[in-house]
Amino acid sequence: MAKLITFLILVPFTLAFPRTLLVPEDFLTIQQAVVSAQNGDTVSVNLGRPNGQRSLVATERIFGKTITFEVRGEGNDELLEMIQGLDNFPNPNQQDHQTSPLGWQGQKQVNEPDDLYDGCSGLKSLIFDSQSRPWVFWSGDPPSSSNFWVFYTNWDGQGWSGDRVAVALPGPERWDAYIVRATLGLDNQPHIVCHIADSANLSDIYYTHYNGSEWTPKIMVNLPDSTENDYQPHIAANGNQMWVTWFGGPTDFFYKIYVSHWDGNGWTPEEVISSANYHNWFQNVAVDRNGNPHIAWIALDLTPNRQDVLFYRYYNGNRWLEPETVMKGMLLYAGIHWSGLDLELDEEENPHITFDAMDTTNSQRFQIYYTKKQNGKWIKPILVTNNEYDEGGPLLAVLNSHNIWITWTRNNNHDIVATYYNGQDFAPEIIVESNLSYFDNAQDLKFDPQGRLWLIHNGVPYGRDGEEVYYNIYGSSYLEEVTQNRKYQVKMITPNPFSHHTTISYELTKPTSVKIEVFDKLGKRINLLETGFKYPGSHTINWEGKDQDDKVLPNGIYFISLTLDNKKETMPVILLR
Prior knowledge:
- The chain is mainly beta.
- Helices cover 6% and strands 45% of the residues.
- The protein contains four helices and 41 strands.
- Strands 22, 23, 24, 25, 26 and 27 form a six-stranded antiparallel beta sheet that branches.
- InterPro entries: FlgD/Vpr_Ig-like, Secre_tail.
- It comes from candidate division WOR-3 bacterium.
């Protein structure tokens, strides 16, 4: 027995149990799952089609690992071809983390390093301008004042522009700007709202926008009221319509949800859209292609029975429809990080919502849930995470109905955690940031026009007084591409996979010779989509899954090759009819 014990001590071992990784029908996400998979794991892909039963199981040797692939739905043979082709791509684990074309790129600082309290007073905001360049907004105290101002920075093609002031609130009276939210207006310029507390701690909603050279004077959105506080505005725009929503009231209980929209000359008088029987707060807004707002909010039931409600309401262009009950019966949480819920619309303008809640029948802790409206009905809320400490207000980003991400902050050590939805369930959690020397909070999550996922978060280095603002990107390093001052930018190939046609979008900054070709998996050219000289601007071309003779091609994986000024980029696409 002594020898056995000695052997066990000298030769330690660990047991690695096989896992099942759930992924959507998305090339980059499947490749990322293969990269992160361990030897013996299963990668389960759901095609989101009527045949949801497991219809294909195959074991492949990829990146030096034996992985079982489980495909549910139709078109699985073609998807297996795509999976087998993954081994022809570089293994991102063998590349430098900061330059890997897949996965999270690693945090980088947005604001200028200092000991100021940058962003310590609530939500940061991220938008992309007409040139797809990011703008980041936050509040903080400048050296010349103890008041909180609104700062911003934008990527100017070479680097971040440095900390700039959007809203200045100099003394001697105490004025503090909190909860900055931004959107891109019809003029392709940033528009922001924030709530500003005066020296008497009375809060109002203010708005300003950038006119191309300077920020316009701030104006009040809500009606002036010396007895009412207004908090946490959100702003959204589409077309020529821009909407702001916020919560407020004369006391700390029975707040109302307010809304106002820009009529071309100013903000319309505030309108109440919530019920008077609840304490309403932590709303969010999204605007569809018709310029109509979709709003969701949390309504706390202050009666002894405590039946909280998650409400959703929609304006159809003429009137507000009756509020819909998305969920009722759980204890709804406002989020320890100023974000109780997040709302986004997909490509079919179906609303998606993520929120904090406590199911008192099963646990006594707050957890992250997700729901969406499908075929005119809300699906039963899905439990995203069951971790003991997952309380941080969730953030939601929806690229389309098959590419949905949620991120939140874990309360015990402030890890920033993310997951994605594959159409039926959520994939295992990914820890995006786990730096115990920082006090990390997830702040904003958005897809850029190229389909890359951006996360904005803040952090407080231990031993420092100042709070800093950071960004992280899931996907290729866009900022490095912009810095190289390329003549072109391949914006997107979508949809991918496709059944009828896919669109290749690219942008030229200078006159450029262009050739766009399609190759099969053997490297044979099967179609020439475009060739010639193109002028600067945005360009698109469709491919309908046919060869040069206009014959319909079989399902499978193909490669789109773009040669622009003798520089070639090749990207895979999947044809699934």
